[in-house]
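[job 0412] stage=complex_fold ligand=ribulose-1,5-diphosphate status=START
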Amino acid sequence: MNQIISATASDIRDMRVRGAGRIARAGATALADYAASYEGRSLEEFRNDLRKASEVILGSRPTAVSLWNGVHYTLRGISSAETFEAARDSVIANGKEFVTNSEQAVQRIARIGAKRIKDGDVLMTHCNSSVAIGVILEAVRQGKDIKVYATESRPWRQGILTVNDLSKGGVDTTLIIDSAVRSVMSRVDRVFVGADTITSSGSLINKIGTSQVAMAANEARAEVNVCSETYKFSPKTMFGDTVTIEERDISEVVRPGEIPENVRVFNPVFDTTPAKYIDNIITEVGIMSPGAVYGVMVKQFGESIFDLE
Ligand code: RUB
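[job 0412] stage=complex_fold status=DONE, emitting structure tokens
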């Protein structure tokens, strides 16, 4: 396989590039770069090679629909292109456009989401969502005095990245272990988390433990906000497709020889938060309740949604 494609796929698989937005932008960029450096001239071969390249990229991490949407956005129009040059140019332009739109969406969500935060609020976030962090940093930039509890997020400990990001942005930040979520929740006004995938019924698939955070928030009457670009909406779930929850290697959880060989380790890295535990989904097109996702999905994806394979 081409070097650009295999390097990007392994960066995503091994989590050197991680987070749903970043992996989508990396996938789109890799396909655009691949097209720009493509050496053949045959349209048919180019289409086949692109299809294989996109399968390699999509196989790198299964859960985030952002990657699927980024890849499909980039390949839009290649089946109707009449020449190799037209197909190549459209892949290059689409890949760039996806990245630009994605970056603009993240900035817009920061501005929209910051309005939900009030001076004096205590927040909680889970894992490391660049979009949720963007919202919190924007609120602080606007001069709001807030405190944030950030979970460690075992086993990868993305919470360490989060507390570094928040602290650099001047946020009053406290790191907690995952099992402290329920006990700390009584002090929290609002939860802000990111999204890997949002289903047509408004349920959220995000880092393992997000559902526990949301349930604890529901019990403590804290508001749950999901910060998500609309390319994290999964059109396939409209037709009943379920989202594959990635399981990763047990070496992320235990060291060799630490537990008896007959003990299994189960390491799912995402979970599903039912829509009933979510108050707001904050997107670049506005704030909506989970029940509004279906309508926005149809509008965003247009008629092509009904041609999905
Ligand atoms: C990251 C994670 C993040 C979402 C959203 O999981 O669950 O909350 O991907 O991230 P992992 P962003 O570390 O396994 O990729 O808001 O940056 O797109």
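The chain has a mean pLDDT of 96.
[job 0412] exit 0
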